[in-house]
Amino acid sequence: MRGAFLALAVLLLAACVSAAAPVAESGKRIALTFDDIPRHPGAFFSEDERTERMITHLRETGVEQAAFFLNPGKIAERPGAEARIARYVAAGHVIANHTSTHPQLSDTDVAAYLANIDDAETWLKGREGYRAWFRFPFLDEGRSDKAKRDAIRAGLAERGLQNGYVTVDASDWFYEQAVTNAVRTGQEIDMDALRDLYVESHVQSAEFNDQLARKTLGRSPAHVMLLHETDLAALYLGDLIRALKAKGWTIISADEAFADPIAKLQPDVPSAQGTLIEALAWERGLPAPRWYARNNTALAQKEFDTRVLGKE
Ligand SMILES: [Zn+2]
Predict the structure, then answer these.
(1) Any domain includes 88
(2) How many CB atoms lie within 10 A of CB 191?
(3) Number of independent structural domains in the chain
(4) CA distance linking residue 83 with residue 14, whole number of Å
(5) How many A from CA of 235 to the centre of ligand 1?
(6) Measured in angstroms, how far is the CA atom of residue 72 from the centroid of ligand 1?
(7) pTM of the full predicted structure?
């Protein structure tokens, strides 16, 4: 009996050591975040199926806490949305503010934008899983309009809201749109190639942004990946998480990621693509390219057409 116990203890210890080894070597950490909940349906699943599949992928790969950035003003348009949000929370995930109706700051005046944030906050505050984080729709922080950018930053601080920035983006929304169009127009889709393109692009973007962060900050920060509530996530989120782990990444909670010291930094640059790493690199004078190449959607389209649709 004692022998069996000892053998078990040794096995457990060995499992812990081998699980911890890649972390110690690379130190790369990343949290997963999903925007635009409730999002319109994609080409393959009902909204309920999409949610259940995403939750299952997170659970099966041991991701204990992802963050979901909500547009509460869209809940009434999508039957069952409130119950789906409750499902994410019941599975251990957290919810935060992405404005009520997803306006773009560059096209919206300060008062209207802050009112839109407040509308979302009214719905969110006090709910289970709530976090006081705000993510800018389109990652638009006012671009070159410094007065507007500063006014919104002051407004967020007054409200006790922290910027829910991203550090890794690979335009998942673009591939979701491309595959939805392909299905609707009856084109033949190579699903394995679609999975590979989705997974590869997000892993590449994570690696690119981590290298840029190390050059900019001298260390690897806790990263935040931007994803959306998509059928691609419903299909391939598990593959993506496993691919990140295979590259030495540890998936961390959104709580841990947003506690990184970079959360306090507010770079003063007219942001373009919108990751915090890009803005910091720009502010500190690092040379281009400061953003992941396939966020150029012409390039992404070319990859999609060639690999997924088999076009020359
Ligand atoms: Zn959004």
Answers:
(1) yes
(2) 12
(3) 1
(4) 42
(5) 20
(6) 12
(7) 0.91
